[in-house]
User: Fold this.
Amino acid sequence: MRPRSIKASKSQASLTIFWEDGTEVSLPFHKLAAACRCASCNDARAKAMAAGTAHEPESSILDTIEAVGSYGVNILWVGGCRHGIYTWDYLYALGAGHTPTADHHRAW
Ligand SMILES: [Zn+2]
Assistant:
């Protein structure tokens, strides 16, 4: 799935994606920042889960969004993470209500 267009609204603090299948989804910046999958955010999320708390992103104030090839975007947060690559598949999954887990970090 690929987006037809993407619209970031700083006033509404959300990213709206219009998918090629005609569906549209709005993802709040806070949710996006909390769902970053870079190594350091994965680590922070795993620690929060181990402690039984919710992972809070350092920042969910949008700085810029950069295209990454043709498969996704890099979302940069002001004063927060700058390494988050969000592929179209991942954004689609987030829009469908799937959230990342740190299951693979858990030592059973
Ligand atoms: Zn990150």
Notes: Confidence is low (pLDDT under 50) at residues 102-108. Residues 39-50 form the longest helix (12 residues). The longest strand covers residues 3-9.
